[in-house]
Design a protein that fits this description.
By secondary structure, this protein is an alpha/beta fold. 36% of the residues lie in helices and 30% in strands. The strands form 3 sheets. The chain has a 6-stranded mixed sheet, with helices on both faces. A 4-stranded antiparallel sheet has the order 2-1-4-5. The structure holds adenosine-5'-triphosphate and magnesium ion. The site of magnesium ion (MG) has 4 residues, from helix 1.
């Protein structure tokens, strides 16, 4: 069983000629087959955690460790992280002009699997996954995220997730901006991947509505750059009713 282990992670970012510490000691363990939800106020550092795990150059790890199956993730290049089985769906997916969805997916799959998927089975695999996500087949020929609506971008992220079959998937606000039907379709996609029992999922979200479709095993409250509390699915309901005030109060060190 693959395990992502984050230990006492501290991360800074350079902004306006000053160094600002955003993550202040994150501890989290995600095992294959488990689903974790991270909830927390705006600006608490949730996306920073996702970017840091992705290896984004803007974020400097000042201390702490991240391992996947005991391998040092922080030493890996972005490509190596993907090959090791880490998948990240960003809150704001980027456009890739000149690269079609179909080429992008095949290149990604080749990188992750270590060999190019056979063309005939691959085309079928992509078509089936797109049909399940109710994506129009014409999307395959469009440039990645160019002119995609918010919801279409999120579906494209889940399409990648289904095709790449990672060990650990980090989904940053995959539910934001989705209409009710899209939310269900995207959730079903995540659940299909989850049901394999082979992926650990870290779901960053603001809304408990997605957690009605995707039942988390653990819910974590993220506040002031670290996990302030962890619990089961019931913690999400408590947060929905009571908000984050209890966690933010007195903890603000900025
Ligand atoms: N590249 C950057 N340059 C400057 N400041 C940054 C950068 N990245 C993050 N920050 C700051 O770090 C803090 C945490 O941001 P982050 O995006 O991680 O929050 P978040 O918890 O994902 O919030 P939200 O719920 O709004 O998505 C914010 O104050 C943000 O302005
Ligand atoms: Mg964010």
């Amino acid at each position: 069983m693959a395990t992502l282990e984050i230990r006492d992670l501290h991360v800074t970012v350079e902004a306006d000629n000053a160094t600002k510490e955003i993550l202040k000691g994150v501890d989290l363990t995600v095992k294959q087959g488990e689903t974790h939800a991270i909830m927390g106020p705006n600006g608490s550092g949730k996306s920073t955690l996702a970017y840091s795990l992705a290896g984004h150059p803007k974020y400097t790890i000042t201390s702490g460790t991240v391992t996947l199956d005991g391998e040092d993730v922080l030493e890996m290049s972005v490509d190596e992280r993907a090959r090791a089985g880490l998948f990240l769906a960003m809150q704001y997916p980027v456009e890739i002009p000149g690269v079609s969805v179909s080429n992008f997916l095949r290149t990604s799959a080749t990188a992750v699997r270590g060999e190019a998927p056979k063309l005939r089975t691959w085309v079928k695999e992509v078509k089936e996954a797109m049909a399940e996500l109710q994506m129009d087949p014409s999307f395959a020929e469009r440039n990645v995220n160019e002119g995609f609506s918010g919801g279409e971008k999120k579906r494209h992220e889940i399409l990648q997730l289904e095709l790449l079959k990672p060990k650990v998937a980090i989904l940053d606000e995959t539910d934001s901006g989705l209409d009710v039907d899209a939310l269900r379709i995207v959730s079903e996609g995540v659940n299909r991947v989850r049901e394999s029992g082979e992926v650990g999922t870290l779901l960053i979200t603001h809304y408990t509505r997605i957690l009605r479709y995707i039942k988390p095993d653990f819910v974590h409250v993220f506040a002031n750059g670290r996990i302030a509390e962890s619990g089961g699915a019931e913690l999400a309901d408590k947060l929905e009713n009571e908000g984050y005030e209890a966690y933010v109060k007195g903890g603000a060190s900025e």
